[in-house]
# Entry
Amino acid sequence: MASVSTNGYSLLSMKIMMEYGMFEHGYIKIRNGMISEYGSMEQYSNPQNLEEIQFHKDLIAIPGFIDIHIHGLNGADVMDATEEALESMAFTLPKEGTTSFLATTITQDKTNITTALQTIQSYIQKQNNDTPSSELLGVHLEGPFINAKRAGAQPKSFILEPSIAQFTQFQIDSGNNIKVVTMAPEQAAGIDLVKFLSESGVIPSIGHSDALYTEMLEAMNAGAEHITHFYNGMRGNHHREPGVAGAGLAHPELFLEIIADGIHVHPAVVKATYLTKGAERLLLITDSMRAKWLENGEYDLAGQKVKVQDKTALLEDGTIAGSVLKMNEAVKNMMDYTGCNMQQAVQMASSNPAKRLNVWSRKGSIAVGKDADIVIVNDEMQVKMTFCNGKQSYKGE
# Structure
């Protein structure tokens, strides 16, 4: 897909979601891949001769979504370990409004993980902002340092004990691009790894973990402040043993990823979690696998057969195996389940992940000087147009 040669765009006449509130009947100017100006249509002029795109007054410009936990879509998976698979993901994601993402690995043989990480490093080095595709920001290493008791769809045979040496090698293989590590702190040397990750600027995320509440406190003292796909793959909340889930609810400082598809977590529980944590501490993720954007049928996840039917992906034993959730659906579901407004739902899919990944200075909101990662949606959160780094990456049907 060739990039469109243009000096920039003027997006006209739509609502604009800014960091604090909504702007009615506004314009946004995009130049050199960045947001150069925005304001009211009354003040609009176009001396730069930018290409003008007129929108309906009811459409809304929102910041692009950042999916920090995604395995695959459109037939591609991160563990295919090919640049073609990563490119397919990057070019398809704008259809659901996702303008940047973390390529998420799965518990596999060390050599398979290494190959996937080296491929990601190579892809990121060649990545070009002139390409109209979602930006790959780095790696979410999910496993292999997890607890077999809470493995879920992670293949148990490849689980490793937490190891600073092994993580360091993975980080070298990735070109220093690992941003998040999902791990079980209760495993031997788990707390050491949490502390090491935290001190080296990588997010230690508690997941696929059977940790007791006391072990969670120990992990938090060592620097853990994030929980992977909350409620799924962890010790649940019991009134006498809060476990991982209870700790996530009780401690305001913890950030929680949530898969808001109504399958992984019941809508009422999503609502209760939102009422407890607020929009500031939740991050919407898809955790999607390669079947997303494809038909029902049988697919592969880390060498395991997955059956996809009616928006649910299951292993042969009935274990949930990721999702086929699209990020714009997650945002809409969040509004429907919790009663939060669009600004709050978008915060969980854009601003919060941008801040967690330390890219807030250039992503996560519509502001002058930031990357022009902009999605035009209607009030049902259907994507009409997407810009990634100022390039038109998707034009609705």
Q: What stands out?
A: Residues 1-5 have pLDDT under 50 and may be disordered.
